[in-house]
Amino acid sequence: MQQSIMSTLPLLLLLLFSSLFPAPSHAWGIHGHLIVCQIAQGRLSDAAAAAVRGLLPSYAGGNLSSLCSWADGVKLRYPWSAPLHYIDTPDHLCSYTYDRDCKDEDSFRGRCVAGAINNYTSQLLTYDATSPSTQYNLTQALLFLAHFVGDIHQPLHVGFTSDKGGNTIDVHWYTRKTVLHHVWDDNIIKTAENDYYGEGVAEFVDALMQNITGEWSQRVPGWEECSKNQTTCPDTYASESIAAACDWAYKDVTEDSLLEDAYFGSRLPVVNLRLAQGGVRLAATLNRIFS
Ligand SMILES: *[C@@H]1O[C@H](CO)[C@@H](O)[C@H](O)[C@H]1NC(C)=O
Ligand SMILES: *[C@@H]1O[C@H](CO)[C@@H](O)[C@H](O)[C@H]1NC(C)=O
Ligand SMILES: *[C@@H]1O[C@H](CO)[C@@H](O)[C@H](O)[C@H]1NC(C)=O
Ligand SMILES: *[C@@H]1O[C@H](CO)[C@@H](O)[C@H](O)[C@H]1NC(C)=O
Ligand SMILES: *[C@@H]1O[C@H](CO)[C@@H](O)[C@H](O)[C@H]1NC(C)=O
Ligand SMILES: [Zn+2]
């Protein structure tokens, strides 16, 4: 007994510490990624579902959603991957171009979430069901791709440079102090779950999937499509995100703004749409890769 308490103590302290001092994040929260991957999983072709099952570690039981936040967990182990979760665009310009913006803080070109989506898509295109890749770890390629297609749909993952996508803008979400970036990663989603979906992520996913096959069904083929027969088109997703960041996320927000019902009610439809588009496009991309 004594021993097992001692051995869990460091873990408990770590959990306590990390809940007191949450690390600054650059990611949809766990639920955002879960939602995107669950929507995608239900739309995979037989070939893509088989490839995904073959690439996932066996403990995942073929369930992609269970590993959609894996990329956030390896930022310390793979420091090179940290800049691959987002794009910094010039302040107040509200536009994105790959050549100008897709780089890391040291100006290494292609090191942003759009470059990473292209990178892992081309790695996965080498997949051969009959022999494991000797060149790439395609399990990691799949987990990075599934995560980054989610990230690039979070409007503030394609935000302004000086405020780090809203990470340096302090706000109040109802009674809690947080930062604008986190409101879009987590708070809007969690509040929607509490208010409308009996706190359940599964019901939220169901509601989104109903609109994908109902309300939005005419628009879905347009979401799936990429011009010029590209396998994936992250530049389109990024341009939409910075537009939504300016039109909705940053709009009327200043340091210490109090964000409550009016902000929540007007922004939730944008979050709903971006989660749905992320899921639909992740499936479309995987279906093209493994066709
Ligand atoms: C897949 O994993 C997610 C996250 O762990 C879980 O919520 C979901 O129920 C799982 N789905 C299946 C079909 O096991
Ligand atoms: C591409 O993937 C490789 C292997 O994971 C990685 O080392 C490299 O940093 C990636 N580059 C980009 C831009 O994603
Ligand atoms: C590929 O990456 C996964 C996840 O990090 C790891 O478990 C696995 O051992 C790696 N495979 C190879 C062949 O290195
Ligand atoms: C689904 O569409 C209806 C009708 O536009 C809308 O009221 C509802 O909020 C949408 N739900 C989600 C989860 O997007
Ligand atoms: C796109 O791909 C289809 C099928 O492979 C082909 O028939 C068509 O000509 C291609 N279109 C362009 C613009 O490359
Ligand atoms: Zn991320």
From TrEMBL:
Q: Does the keyword Nuclease apply?
A: yes
Renumbered to this chain, the signal peptide range is 1-27
Tell me, what's a Pfam family for it? S1-P1_nuclease
Its EC top class is hydrolase
Entry's SUPFAM superfamilies? Phospholipase C/P1 nuclease
Q: Cite the CDD domains for this sequence.
A: S1-P1_nuclease
| EC numbers | 3.1.30.1
**Keyword entries, A-Z:** Disulfide bond, Endonuclease, Glycoprotein, Hydrolase, Metal-binding, Nuclease, Signal
Record has Plastid as a keyword: no
Kindly state which reaction or reactions the protein catalyses: Endonucleolytic cleavage to 5'-phosphomononucleotide and 5'-phosphooligonucleotide end-products
UniProt-listed InterPro entries: PLipase_C/P1_nuclease_dom_sf, S1/P1nuclease
Q: Which GO terms describe its molecular function?
A: double-stranded DNA endonuclease activity; endonuclease activity; metal ion binding; nucleic acid binding; RNA endonuclease activity; single-stranded DNA endodeoxyribonuclease activity; T/G mismatch-specific endonuclease activity
In the record, biological process GO terms are:
DNA catabolic process
Similarity-based family: Belongs to the nuclease type I family.
Protein name per UniProt? Aspergillus nuclease S1
**In which organism is this protein found?**
Oryza sativa subsp. japonica (Rice)
